[in-house]
Amino acid sequence: MSIDKNKIKNILEEINAEKWVKNIQIFGNKVMIDAVSPSPAMHDKKKLEDKLTESIHQDFPDADVQVRVEVKSTAKPSPSKENPQILGKKIDGIQNIIAVASGKGGVGKSTVASNLAVSLREMGFQVGLLDADIHGPSIPTMFDVEGAKPHSVNVNGKSKMEPIESYGIKILSIGFFTAIDQAVVWRGAMASKALQQLIHDAHWGKLDFLIVDLPPGTGDIQLSLVQQVPVTGAVIVSTPQDVALADARKGVNMFQLESINVPVLGIVENMSYFTPEELPENKYYIFGKNGAKNLADKLNVPFLGEVPLIQGIREGGDQGRPATAEANSLASEIYRSITKNMVKSLVERNTNLPPTEIVRITTMSGCSS
Predict the structure, then answer these.
(1) Contact, 134 vs 216, CB < 8 A?
(2) 207 vs 51: CA distance, rounded Å
(3) Considering only CA atoms, which of 168, 167, 228, 233 is closest in space to residue 201?
(4) pLDDT, greater one: 157 or 41
(5) Is 99 helix (H, G, I), strand (E, B) or coil?
(6) How high does pLDDT run on average in the chain?
(7) Coil, helix or strand for 269?
(8) Is 238 helix (H, G, I), strand (E, B) or coil?
(9) What are the pLDDT digits (tens) for 176-210?
(10) What's the start-to-end Cα distance of the chain, in Å?
């Protein structure tokens, strides 16, 4: 039996639950429902979740239906010691916050983040780039602003950091506040505090996009980001080989955790193949073929595109000249296509899903909504 949205709506009407349901998504045999409860009490929200799940399973007894119900409350309980206010807040003037992440290092995540930012700027958007890789900041090098020092400005009576601007991108990085050869040896709490200052103590102005270049992995910095700001969506970067894909899968799963719930806008495959300049028709799949594309299909997330091994991209990163800034180059065409796919995925996300909420971290070992 096929599962369609109208059938699900009819089921909800039969149990008089349609007024509580705000969004329905169907992906194959998966049914995802966003609902609201008039009561903030956990047991009331659980009752609504169980009622919706049970009703759908009853109408599809022979089908392998997976139902996920997300219930939020329309009532906001007042703050208390048992229910403290979330400290994180939306950054005024910033429309979309995009996290660029990877499960492991060495896959070219910072290069992808830099060129996505420049591509967005070339398309006419106002863009900021936050280098959140506290222990290994490379964005200053990639934009030829090593040694730059942000100055402070007075904004509504408060002192704020003014981002450094390069290629039309507003940039902040911990690398602006340390010597080039200085190792940042900080524990997680200190790194998270630094990230908070880079986000909230900066004068970003009005931005269509703030691209956040996250460190590799699924640790403190990633959790701190989703705790402090409502991340609109995430882009995962991976190379094609199985070793990298195993960690990319973890990166996707982290953002899809029920307690984090940040939409994954898609996967970018970096270093997909090598083409010699003198043999442009030849493609050598050094790290494997279609690995990230197959992973995207398996995880049911968009595949944004593949970036081949191009010498100009590496040279641009080393010389502080993002490859995308060179008009009509092969690299700029590739990244423009990937950026367009990301924007398309973002538009669909903003049309079909509610705004992302800030996560409240409750323990050192995990988080809850």
Answers:
(1) no
(2) 42
(3) 228
(4) 157
(5) strand
(6) 81
(7) strand
(8) strand
(9) 887 666 666 566 667 777 777 888 888 999 999 99
(10) 34
Cβ within 8 Å of residue 115, ≥6 positions away: 313, 322, 323, 324, 331, 335
d(CA 205, CA 118): 18
Look at the alpha carbons of 222, 223, 225, 229 in this order and tell me if their dihedral is positive or negative: positive
When pLDDT is cut at 50, 70 and 90, the band that residue 33 belongs to is confident
Q: Which residue has the tokens 């002192």?
A: 159
Chain centroid to CA 83? 27
Query: Residue 267 — pLDDT band, cuts 50, 70, 90?
Result: very high
Q: Does residue 28 come out as left (phi exceeding 0), alpha (psi in the -120 to 50 range) or beta?
A: left
Alpha-carbon gap, residue 98 to 346, rounded angstroms: 9
Residue 113, token pair as written in the block = 């983040």
Q: What six digits make up the tokens of 73? A: 């409350």
Bridging pattern class, strands 264-274 and 233-238: parallel
| Number of other CB atoms surrounding residue 288 within 10 Å | 18
Beta bridge partners, 37, equal 73
| SS3 label, residue 279 | coil
Q: How far apart are CA 92 and CA 311, in angstroms?
A: 39
Contact, 140 vs 319, CB < 8 A?
no
Cβ burial of 181 (10 Å; 0-12, 13-18, 19+) is exposed
**CA-CA-CA-CA torsion sign (224, 247, 352, 42):** negative
pLDDT, residue 16, reads 77
Assigned token pair, 331: 């690299």
State the pLDDT at residue 78.
43
Mean pLDDT of 123-132: 92
Query: DSSP class of residue 61?
Result: T
How far apart CA 270 and CA 236 sit, in angstroms, is 10
- pLDDT at position 39, please? 63
Asked if the model's pLDDT at residue 266 lies above 90, the reply is yes
Contact 130, 212 (CB under 8 A): yes
**Position 309, amino acid:** L
